[in-house]
Amino acid sequence: MTERRTDQMTLVAFMQASNVSVYSGSWRYPNAAQDYLSLAYYQRIARVLEEGNFDLMFFDDRLAMPGIYGNSVADAVRYGARPIKLDLTAILGAAAAATTHLGLGATYSTTYYQPFHVARTFATLDHLSGGRAAWNIVTSVNDAEARNFGVDKHFDHDKRYDRAEEFVEVVAKLWDSWEDDAIIGDRESGIFADAEKVHEVDHHGEFFDVQGPLTVPRTPQGRPVLIQAGQSGRGRQFAAKWADLIFTGDPSQAVAAEHYADQKALVAEHGRATDSVRVLPMVYVIPGETEEIAQQKESIFLHELVHPQASLTLLSEVTNHDFAGHSLDDVVTDELIESVSGIRGLVQGVKRHIGDQVLTLRVLANHRATLLQGPRFVGTGAQIAEQMEGWFQSRSCDGFVIAATHFPGAFEDFVRLVVPELRARGLVREEYTGSTLRENLGLERPENLMTASAQTELVDDRVVEHA
Length: 467
Fold this sequence. Notes:
The protein is of the alpha/beta class. The chain has helices spanning 39-51, 74-78, 88-98, 115-128, 143-148, 157-175, 233-242, 253-269, 291-303, 308-319, 334-339, 344-354, 361-369, 381-393, 409-424, 437-441; strands at residues 10-16, 56-60, 103-109, 133-138, 183-186, 191-193, 203-204, 209-210, 225-228, 245-248, 278-287, 376-379, 399-403, 456-459, 462-465. The protein folds into 2 domains: 10-302 and 375-465, TIM Barrel, CATH 3.20.20; 307-369, no CATH class. The strands form 4 sheets. An 8-stranded parallel beta barrel has the order 1-2-3-4-9-10-11-13, surrounded by 7 helices. Helix 6 (157-175) packs parallel to helix 7 and helix 7 crosses helix 8. It is globular and about 75 Å long. Its EC number is 1.-.-.-.
């Protein structure tokens, strides 16, 4: 059985700096807050999450409106299918100011940013938040994003990961370019820092040439927490090498348990302790004061709020294929799968979820825009806690990424109804015990690879450490 450092769940809140949550009909729910263009909105949610002792408030991001369907953003705008994506820098800063312990994470692409920019952004956030920053590493391929950044052609799948590998290597070097004790701050002598403890990274690779050092000293966490959610074979290998948190999208507990075991084995193959990485599936949680109330809410979310055209618009975005010439009732054939490069993994996942049901574009699209895109825990607080405990104790996960049906009510209900039940079972903390995100996750602070004691050299194909 895979070992686990802690017997308590990791809890992550899945956020969008948007008019909607990851559930595209959330803006239509009657008590969904409408002040999503204000800092107060995100600060309010952050305080709720900290009250519930969540580990991390994580923001997904996309650098374009959904504009693949019909080669237009019209339907995304018309039906509110994620047309708004605010810049995350200010939002993370505001959330940091409103909280004391809550981790703060964001998606930054290795395709459209540069290593120095990402390293500086997250190092700054880590300092200003007292050690609570996390970076979700993504390799972008969406054509709508490409058009916003003047990119004519993306690298193929493996080349994108080759670039991402080097990108993260450079970022890690930049984060380590200051030794922990480099700053002296001796006013009397006039010596601010020890120049021998601030290093140029002098990186020259296939994709990047970066001199360094970073303009931000080494951070409270040493390095911000790294997140990855790659589902392909190469993506899982990348996550096993680099990630502290791995987000998954498995449709059932059986699939999640299989994925969990596979991912932990890959972590071990990379020479890392399996308990140093958290595997966290995304789930929806719909609590109610009674089981009947929870089921009524679930029915509304399933059937009443997502416009079918919004679903198809988002399916075009995620697969990078224009479905404007198709009907929602078209059957997903082998020929269609062969003609759409980005659809195979999604189809395989949905088929595992629906079994023998005929797979149409409507069904496929609904698994991208509605509650069908992830497992659902529905019921009273006690019932949901029991479902979550079942996944956790069976080694199907190390915790959960909680996706909201609407903001801020979904998280308010979860903290009010479910968290007390999880606490009573000893599955989540009563209070924060660490001062940094890594400490609260039970993760060690990484050693600085630029210091003399950590330098390595390659001898006879073996890495040997020396003082």
